[in-house]
Automatic annotation (TrEMBL):
InterPro entries: CBM96 (IPR055372). It comes from Emticicia agri. Residues 126-262 form the Carbohydrate-binding module family domain. NCBIfam families: DNRLRE_dom. Pfam families: CBM96. GO terms for cellular component: extracellular region. This is DNRLRE domain-containing protein. Keywords: Secreted, Signal. It is found in: Secreted.
Length: 265
């Protein structure tokens, strides 16, 4: 008999969550063979609205890989997050892409391990890389006032691009037109609101973690949800050679996925 704990996250009020831990005994006949099997089992066990599930140590789902947490639905939340909403989607449910001026018609979302901003040259030709990033805020009502919003970005020691290269100040803007992570390119990149931005200071460290106050950007997002489609990250100075990069949701360490925390006012 195998026992696994499932942490269920339910809607409490507005967009804030509380947790309930459910312990389920599993026989071989009830073994988790796929993520839909897990989801259906939980839906049958609970009459409440399920927002997300964290599976702790279910090997038949994780197939021997690390799965603490392993996300079934769109959102990872944290029971230690009081009066706040924490979003840290994994590679299955994240929406992110990098776009490159050197390959302006190529989509680069499928396996990117790094996000951020890069300027370099390829065969003597300038190459600018930007990042598009969005979080699912559908559970937050239009016009909701927030106290604070933090974007957590983590330096990536296993980067495929290279270490940070200063001066590398980075800007974040709110995206104002739709984009599809599976098709977006430099040539088709979305528009953004240039009137409001948040700037990350330059880093001389090879790998740097940032907690960025993006309250103004998220508040504008919530005030105009029909015209808000995430955020664009770009270097302030896009002339070579500069680099400020972070782990993407496709990196091998779930704790380093980009994370957004929104605090209730």
């Amino acid at each position: 008999m195998k026992v696994s704990k499932l942490m269920l996250l339910f809607k409490k009020s507005d967009y804030f969550l509380f947790t309930m831990v459910l312990t389920i005994s599993l026989s071989k006949a009830l073994a988790f063979n796929s993520l839909p099997d897990v989801q259906n089992l939980i839906l049958n066990k609970s009459s409440k609205q399920e927002l997300s599930v964290i599976i702790i140590g279910v090997d038949s789902v994780c197939k021997g890989t690390a799965c603490v947490p392993y996300v079934i639905t769109k959102t990872v939340s944290n029971s230690n997050c009081v009066n706040c909403l924490q979003l840290q989607p994994n590679k299955t449910f994240s929406k992110e892409a990098t776009i490159s001026s050197y390959i302006p018609d190529e989509n680069r979302s499928s396996s990117i391990l790094d996000i951020g901003g890069v300027t370099q040259t390829n065969s003597g030709i300038p190459n600018i890389t930007r990042t598009l990033l969005d979080f699912d805020l559908t559970n937050i009502t239009q016009g909701t006032e927030i106290k604070r919003a933090e974007l957590h970005l983590y330096g990536h020691p296993n980067t495929t691009i290279g270490v940070n290269m200063p001066p590398n100040e980075l800007e974040i803007y709110r995206i104002t037109s739709s984009w599809d992570q599976n098709t977006v390119t430099w040539s088709t990149q979305p528009t953004f609101d240039s009137n409001v931005k948040v700037t990350l200071s330059s880093s001389t460290e090879d790998y740097a973690n940032y907690i960025v106050d993006i309250t103004s950007l998220v508040q504008n997002y919530l005030n105009d949800k029909s015209n808000s489609f995430g955020f664009i990250l770009k270097l302030v100075d896009e002339t070579p050679y500069r680099r400020l990069i972070f782990a993407s949701s496709k990196s091998n360490n779930p704790s380093m996925y980009p994370k957004l925390i929104i605090y209730k006012k």
